[in-house]
Amino acid sequence: MLYDVIVVGSGISGLYAALYAQKTGAKVAVLTKGNPMRSNSAVASGGINAVINLGAYDSYLKHADDTVTGADGLVHRKNVERMCQEAPSIIHELSDMGVGFDMNEDDSIAQRPFGGGSAVRTCYIADRTGSAIVMSLLQKCRKEGIDILTNYKLLNILRFNEKLSGISVLRRKDSQVIALACKSLVLAGGGYAGVFRGHTTNAQESSGDVIAAAFRANILLSNMEFVQFHPTTLVNSGSLVSEAARGEGAYLVDETGTRFTDELQTRDKLSRAIIEHINAGHQVFLDFRHLGEALINKKLPSSRKTAL
User: Fold this and answer.
1) Burial 172-189 (b: 16+ CB within 10 A, else e)
2) How far apart are CA 257 and CA 176, in angstroms?
3) Alpha-helix runs per DSSP H in 222-280
4) Which of 38, 267, 272, 304 is an active site residue?
5) Global confidence as pTM
6) Residue 268 and residue 57: Cα distance in Å, rounded?
7) Is residue 197 scored above 90 in pLDDT?
8) Active site includes 267?
9) What is each CA distance from 135 to 32, 131, 139, in whole angstroms?
10) CATH dotted code for 243-307
11) Half-sphere exposure in the Cβ direction for 101 (13 Å, CA)
12) Which CATH superfamily is domain 2-41+136-216 in?
């Protein structure tokens, strides 16, 4: 089958790219090797940052400063500024698509603190933000006639006369290798952190297939060494406990009940603080008790369910 655009990956970036390609009148397909609700976007639950409450205390440039600082300066500043400047319009666009952000009593979009932020700018849907956004975008894609090809695994990027001609894929339901032709290709397949089996909150299918296919096609790769480590997971299951918990005020304490670090540091600093405390002979716990049952049930229901 011939498509104008094939998007590989069904996370937020991939679905958004597909919708914008479709706006041009293109015939578009989204390729995903598994359940779209198992993408890293879908399990990223804490929130999404944007400066939507303008005032003297915050601006998109301050948002950009926090982003650059959190990345230890290893960024393209202009790209970061553009992302932060466009973030409010994207939040409102998502809302128009049906994403049900939590709201304040005055009908403005609610926001919570988040790690590394100098202001309160994280929009959220309880502690299931990613899955709610992915579900809305999937519904929008289907409504707009975009083909969602589920359980198709990218194998290779195909070329003819040194130009893109399509992709080869494994159709997992019958183990058939087939070719899909396309004029343009968007790679949005995520990372490879699933390879750290036993030490990751990523699905095992997050195995770098798209990165490897790009490498074989001589596409330039960069920053492959950067893997994000999330600071809070459950010991026995490895299940992720969302940053939403710390954003709502949960404490990191040791076996004596003592707080030992700033819970809203950037994730790399917080991860190091936890490991250093554990290596010093302590146990580490994420304490929700002071938040109260009503707040936990309203804003952290998924975290509570995971913990129980």
Assistant:
1) eeeeeeeebebeebbbbb
2) 56
3) 243-247, 267-279
4) 267
5) 0.89
6) 26
7) no
8) yes
9) 14, 6, 6
10) 3.90.700.10
11) 26
12) FAD/NAD(P)-binding domain (3.50.50.60)
